[in-house]
């Protein structure tokens, strides 16, 4: 009995793994994207998209970025939670970010200060509170700001990471700045901070192209979500996995019938149709 159930159990584990990966990729992508139209140009920032030399985009391959200034240490990960395979934080207090045994594993930004020889940590960012905006609205080429925040224990904390467009490579973060009681900032130069720009040469069609792009993206997301749901949750296989397949298969015939009815409506009865009747004399 154990041998018979083993393939089924492995299949369930594989399906759960694929769903976990998909949910993780979708969450990261949504957090790390910013698109807007300015002066007949579409600016698109996709910070988590892979680049030739950076397969994880702006995300640190180590699982975290680290900055040390005086007696303070800053750990953070952009648009995702931190992972520590080496050099984890050693904190006295880390209750809202994984606890002492898994410190840093349940937040996206953490700062530690030395107090009497002990590292006291404060969570300053969570993945769910990540926001992306441009550094300079008058100069979108410059880059974006990723801001994370955290609220708890009567204080509001935040971390703002300025990602400056630099196509030559990665520089930093080398320093951090304290802007308020519990607000910090740092700077990172990275190719992911450079926008993908689409120019609209015809001013009259700029809004139309943007609208069509949004419609196509929504349609693709609908097909992908429907296909995944039918495949993994409903167990549908083959071409039937496509949602509303009957409608899409009949779409060509529906379109032809629609245009044919329009032609008949505006052109009137055809000559062949009239000649099929003979005049009757009474």
From TrEMBL:
* Record's signal peptide: 1-27
Query: Which cellular components does GO assign to this protein?
Result: Golgi membrane
Q: Which residues form a coiled coil?
A: none
Q: What are the protein's UniProt keywords?
A: Membrane, Signal, Transmembrane, Transmembrane helix
**What is the membrane topology listed in the Swiss-Prot or TrEMBL record?**
Single-pass membrane protein
Superkingdom of the source species: Eukaryota
Residue ranges spanning the membrane: these are 204-225
Main location class: membrane
This chain's protein is named: Leucine-rich repeat and IQ domain-containing protein 3, putative isoform 1
Q: Give the originating organism.
A: Theobroma cacao (Cacao)
